[in-house]
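Collaboration report, partner site 2.

Our partner group contributed sequences for two proteins of shared interest, and the home lab folded both. The records are reproduced in the order in which they were received, starting with the first partner submission.
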Amino acid sequence: MPLQDKVAIVTGVSNDGQVGQAVAQRLAKEGAKLVLVARNPEHVQARASEITALGGEALAVPADLTKEEDVNNVIRRALDRFGRVDILVNLAGGLTKYKGIEEHTLEDWQSEVGNNLLTAFLCSRAVFGPMKQQGGGRIINFARAGDPQAKMAAYNCAKAGIVALTRTLALEGRKHNIAANAVAPGLVDTKSNTESMSPKPEDLARWPTRQEIAEVVAFLASDAASGVSGQVLPVQGKML
């Protein structure tokens, strides 16, 4: 298995039917030992139990990743349990503030940028030292495909920041064998998207699937992607 005995932290692994669940299961299938992180203790434990039921190994760590002390605790618990961190998948975040620029409050901005960009910065910074000491690692962020859209000011800016963060991490990590890349999905067939948008079957068939996103993450986490860093990989299904 390509990721046998590798240790992967995957953030934003909470609800059933979401990308985080698919990514965690795909990495476990490739042999990775997982540290799963989300705010809700019951949800993240449920996802870890699913991995265990599949024959994998997973540690559930509830955390608010906008808080530096929570992030540091996640890394500390990962190192205490497994002794290393080979892969970080920054999936925490998502679009929650859909409103025009005049309706965007300061709280909206801080929440959206915090959940999507600050979390990725704090987690990446926290794993950088351990990855340097062990001789390398992989950081996989989540941007978004396509041009900015209206009524998504904070989210658009957060995801643009993810691209800049990814390329900065790649530059700083190259002499330490730390690769950093970003996956940029379009609309994905998550349970929350399909329930809220009720797409027609022909439209849903054009969206990338959770499993397709997970395949790209597994590739970037593996030695097959050893020559790839500082890149943003769009995964848009048939939405081109």
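Second partner submission, folded after the first:
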Amino acid sequence: MRILTDEIGGAAGEVDDLAVLYRPPSLPWLRVNMVSTLDGAANGQSGKSGSINNDADKQVFRALRAQADAIVVGAGTARTEGYRVAPVPLVIVSRRGDVPEQLRDAPEGSVLLATCAGSPGLAAARALLGASNILVAGDDQVDLAATKELLVERGLRNLLSEGGPHLLRDLLAAGAVDELCLTWVPRIIGGVHPRILEGADVDVELRLGLLLEEGDTLIGRWLTR
């Protein structure tokens, strides 16, 4: 990969170490990693992001996961993408208190659930995962800013969210996002697909921190602060 712009660290030329380039400027830090086609699709024919990403995007995906203390993901995305237990805790966000089927037999502490007090599935989730693995934030909706604080209190300070589009929108609206990592793959697919952000209007200004190029793929870090 080649660095086109690095406003954070001032590096130039070829990339030697993605881990250094993607080091958070400070902690706690929550970044969201997404991928998009040039015409704005966040997934392809299969309905999964894996149907549009490429090797360059996978390199960044692995680098971000390698330094994360926890991975935050919406329940729907975890279900669709077939999430499994990771080396760090998976934090499933669900207003309904829904734990995806494939994660219900996960080892103790490997899956946390972020939900709200009014969740219809709260009692069942506590019985399934254990009360200590349930984060209750908000009354009728998940308070994502409070969820971030609860994770930080547990020592999970370098947080990586992998979406999906509705969770990204809600995180931005809550002011919980410090950074958006976005890969533009050189494809146009048409059709009807979600964008990287779905839901009610939200208007957040970001500034470019890093722009990389690999072949015809562009990979950026956009900061909210």
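Feedback sent to the partner group on the second submission included the following. The chain has a mean pLDDT of 96. The CA atoms of residues 81 and 141 lie 23 Å apart.
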